[in-house]
Design a protein that fits this description.
The chain has 141 residues and is α+β, with helices and mostly antiparallel strands. It has 4 helices and 7 strands. The chain has a 5-stranded antiparallel β-sheet with strand order 4-3-2-1-5, with no helix packed on it. Strands 6-7 form a two-stranded antiparallel sheet. A hairpin with a 5-residue loop joins β3 and β4. α2 packs across α3.
Length: 141
């Protein structure tokens, strides 16, 4: 599944899958317990495909960060928990993205990235290369 169908909803734990749009917003399904909820247009929602991590030279899309974590972990869950200490999280993230901007990427951001990666990995939703290939073949047609 592409990251443009995966949402983070402010004030709600975990990630959500976009199910369908409604007149006043949309229906989303939790990746934690598969419960559905109606989300109004007034709620603060982030689409994972639009999130990027600051580095010293550019902004790296979250998809690329997830791919780097996936390569480091060989497709398995992360070797650290999102509940680990700030120092452990920063050390881990430095291994994944050595030039990330330490002044603009906070420990809370790293916690979210690790937690989101593990949630996507658990739900077998980390096949981003396939999405890129599909998009490229669709553009060629």
């Amino acid at each position: 599944m592409a990251l443009d169908k995966v949402l983070a909803i402010a004030g709600k734990p975990g990630l959500y899958k976009l199910v369908t749009q409604t007149r006043g917003g949309f229906i989303a399904e939790s990746l934690i317990d598969n419960r559905r909820l109606a989300v109004g247009i007034q709620q603060n929602v982030s689409i994972l495909s639009e999130i990027a991590i600051y580095t010293l030279t550019e902004e790296v899309p979250l998809k690329e960060v997830f791919n780097k974590i996936k390569a480091k972990e060989n497709g398995a869950p992360t070797s650290i928990s999102h509940k680990d200490s700030k120092d452990k999280l920063e050390e881990y993230f430095f291994d994944v993205l050595p030039d990330y901007d330490e002044d603009r990427v906070y420990a809370s951001d790293i916690k979210k990235v690790v937690q989101w990666y593990n949630m996507l990995q658990k739900n077998d939703m980390l096949q981003f290369e396939d999405d890129a290939k599909e998009e490229a073949s669709n553009e060629e047609e």
